Amino acid sequence: MQQHTRAVRVSVTDPAAxxxxxxxxxxxxxxxxxxxxxxxxxxxxxRTDMLAQLAACPFVAFVDVADRQAYPERQLSNSDLSVNxxxxxxAHFPELTGRGLTVSVKELEFNPNDIDFxxxxxxxxALAGPASDHATDMATLIAGAGNSHPQGxxxxxxxxxxSSNFARLLPDDGQQLAQAGVSVQNHSYGVAIENxxxxxxQEYDRQVRQFPALLHVFSSGNSxxxxxxxxxxxxxxxxxxxxxxxxxxxNTLAVGATDPSGLVGARSSRGPAYDGRVKPxxxxxxxxxxxESAALVSGLSLLVQQAYRDQNxxxxxxxxxxKAVLINSANDLGRxxxxxVSGFGQADALGAISTMLDRRFFSGTTAQGTxxxxxxxxxxxxxxxxxxxxxxxxxxxxNAARALVNDLDLEMVSRSTGQRWRPWVLxxxxxxxxxxxxxxxxxxxxNNIEQITLAVPAAGVYELRVRGFGVTQGPQSFSLAYEVxxxxxxxxxxxxxxxxxxxxxxxxxxxxxxxxxxxxxxxxPIGQTQWRLVDAAVPLVPNRFAWGTPDTTAxxxxxLVAGNxxxxxxxxxxxxAPALQVGYTCxxxxxxxxxAQVPGVGQYQVYQLGATTLEPFALTADTAAxxxxxxxxxxxxxxAPVVQGQVANPGSxxxxxxxxxxxxxxxxxxRQLVTDxxxxxxxxxxxxxxxxxxxxxxVSGGYQAVQTITPVTQLAMLLTDQLPEPSRYHYRVxxxxxxxxxxxxxxxxxxxxxxxxxxxxxxxxxxxxxLSVISGSQDEIIxxxxxxxxxxxxxxxxxGSVNSLDTNGLRPGVYLLRVQTKDGPTTTRRxxxx
Length: 834
Prior knowledge:
By secondary structure, the protein is mainly beta. The protein is built from 10 helices and 54 strands.
């Protein structure tokens, strides 16, 4: 019997010596190098009895699992770019689109032919499929251009896209990622709950050190209600349940999920990491799971990278700086300051991009016992001062009890008073009550992220001091982001980049940095001076309000009035984009696109799909657009209403060739297949330039007109004919235009059979084909087939007017078909099989 073998990964101290040892002691195994690091090796063909011998090898530091089956962490169910202020950031910073950057989506392949990725997929021919809906959704959230619909717009809509496979859980080859220009890789997948610092964690930390600008973003997982069965937090319910040891890495980013109101979902995996570090570091909207959250933060990371690159001669920021900016600008959720559920808070696109563009950060290097000091001035009347320190820490040994290698300390000092503030630190003791305790100010010797906040800081000069407390592999570079917030309100949605649907519920969002207070919410159509009251007492602290929008079409604004201050929103469009339809598409006559009139709208912008994005095609006051045969080479079009001179968002983009409308005809079908008085339902896509509609019956030598309708005013009509005698009949419809062109429908068949009559065809028929048996009776019929000697061959039972009898396996010859209705007569027909 062949013995079962397995594969493992090993972390070795001397690769050459280990290979020699394995060749002597484990001769049947195969050793390979699965990563860029020569110290991580894969051992395959290992029998169970060899494991102990392998672990005892003097050159093996740690034996780890090999690749496990990864799975996408939930399907996309909804997307709302307003929750994390991404839509607001796109409106305020339209130049930030991810142009010139590349993101890699590591899981299964996304669909390279999705029009939201058009012209931006690297090596699309290599994506052989089948495409994963989940991967396509993640790529859309990160980088969708919105070509299919405004809701198909992602965070960084001009970024290039690359695909990678999560069958390999170790990092991809760093040199290949660098050559492809990848600066962010998204990982919206997981395995089981794993709580240790393994070879995968080690390799991701090592790769970021080797490629400092490369940021890996992981979903935290959707196991938030589960309990870890192993590791330091085994048995502690509902904590330490991140899905995969690769998420234990220090130099990457793990992201949890919130609902639209900003509450962390119960299923969102939470920390701490195995050694007590803060995980996840951030949360973002992901109603169906943390997959979406990670994708949004990956897209936001690209915008932050571009903001830095465009100010620094094309140089990309380090992953540590991007993390510092994202974490420092996040909005606190849950328990005050940091916690193991929401990390450092809800990602805020506006705050992160503003931090980078305003250069509210420092970079430096420290060694053991040395200190760098940075100063900043805080004006009077500020609400909060916040600073976050991040560094890319050297990889720890696999299975290390504590992952931190270089320990830096952050401290804030008031220059005028000498008062000092330490970072916020959580209890890491393995007990549910301890892990739920609020953060305290003290030195942090676990995390390579440290944050200090100060509420209502006094005006003056403050020092941010970064000291090398335990730098064993120095010098250590670091990034330090900060912000000083005055009491203020910033509208998040609605924005001028989106439509608000009239007569429906809409969630208004804003950011309020100030004490809890009430405000008056008002609404005003543009062009009117009078503000209309929506609600007299809206609490500002929840940062949102459900508004029942007026059923009208207009440009409008909202404002919140708190005390003597008024905060006015951007101008937005209250309008419903019309659905684009195809009137007809004719090879020689062009294609007619049409849409319903939107009340209060006098112009429409028609778009066609360009090389990568929708491009203006025509501005018209009509509700139709005619494409010439040459223009039909581009099949994708959309239409947007123009409200008081402002072009609103378009509706869905259509491919006119797939809408089911041919040359005028949507459908032409008989109401009954067996009848003595035929009736056809005809539906047209348009009556534009139509002169007449004629129902024609096929006769010997051609077609005969039996009914003509002119003028043509309706899209749907009923066409009829009285059948002269029992038989099979063929019909078509002829359309004639005002210019004399004729267009014809497909041909349809109907059968006229008397009440007790029977039709069988084809007859003669090739042996093995199905016979069509048409009975004038609506009752159940029994069909029996006999050969020419009267021997029984087949039986069939049917309920319909048109029935089928199989002749497969019968020899050519003459047969008798006897059809009997329930409690009725028997009808016999001769059938010839060839």
